Amino acid sequence: MSKKDARVDAYIRKSAPFAQPILKHLRSVVHAASPEIEEAMKWGFPHFMYKGMLCGMAAFKEHATLGFWKGSLIVDSAGQTAEEAMGQFGRLASLKELPPKKVLIGYVREAMRLNDRGVKVPARTRRKTSRPVVVPQALKKALARHAMARAMFEKFSPTYRREYCEWIAGAKRDETRASRLAKAIEWISAGKPQNWKYQRQ
Q1: 112 and 144 inside one domain
Q2: Which domain CATH number covers 46?
Q3: 122-153 pLDDT, tens per residue?
Q4: For the ranges 4-8, 101-105, 114-118, 155-159, which has the lowest average pLDDT?
Q5: Does 107 lie in the same domain as 12?
Q6: SS3 130
Q7: Do 24 and 111 sit in the same domain of this protein?
Q8: What is the CA radius of gyration of the chain?
């Protein structure tokens, strides 16, 4: 029998109504792949374990996500990338946006096979040329008012700076942009990259 964690039940209950059926479905699919898979809460999100990390799921205000720990070796490169959302399937707002159950089970079993063989994800190769970092006006103004955040931002790598810039620029509504700016200043001041919650601890 699959080993379930009561904290995952609590996480699903507290999630937005649209996300609950997505999370329940993902949980069911993962356990359908193998009774040996265990659950755990890591970095505040439900994760599934088998000889190490397999995958994790999460729910936010307007979308949910599913991400495989070794996703680059499992999911077709045609899938959406973590630049759009954590995980390999983009920002999920409904069950319709997920692959069929049989396909997902195949992904889970492939993740298990990789862990059985002790396969590591190859290190990313750095691009020889990188896009210039374009700082949105809203972020420029916010950084101008916060010396510590400004100093830390200037020390960040181009990748970290670009992540913040694209996150702020991607806000569709004024209130979303304001909320992101407040979080950005807090996290930058603490020396955290925009995706700090999802990095291995």
Answers
A1: no
A2: 3.90.1150.200
A3: 665 555 556 678 898 999 999 999 988 888 89
A4: 155-159
A5: yes
A6: coil
A7: yes
A8: 18
pLDDT (tens digit per residue) in 181-194: 999 999 998 888 88
Cα 19 to Cα 11: distance, rounded to the nearest angstrom: 11
Closest listed residue to residue 51, CA positions, set 73, 67, 34: 34
Pick from 89, 115, 117, 119: which is nearest to 29 by CA?
A: 89
The tokens describing 100, both together, are 């069929």
Number of domains in the chain: 2
Strand order in the sheet with 53-59: 38-42, 45-49, 53-59, 64-68
| Contacts of residue 131, Cβ cutoff 8 Å, sequence gap at least 6 | 162
Q: Decide if 40 contacts 47 (C-beta within 8 A).
A: yes
Q: Is residue 132 part of a domain?
A: no
Closest CA to 58 of 16, 100, 98: 16
- Within 8 A by CB and 6+ apart from 108, the residues are 29, 30, 33, 34, 37, 48, 54, 55
The full length of the chain comes to 201
Q: Say what the pTM is.
A: 0.58
pLDDT at 5 over 70: yes
Domain residues for 109? Answer: 6-117
Q: Assess whether 24 and 68 both reside in one domain.
A: yes
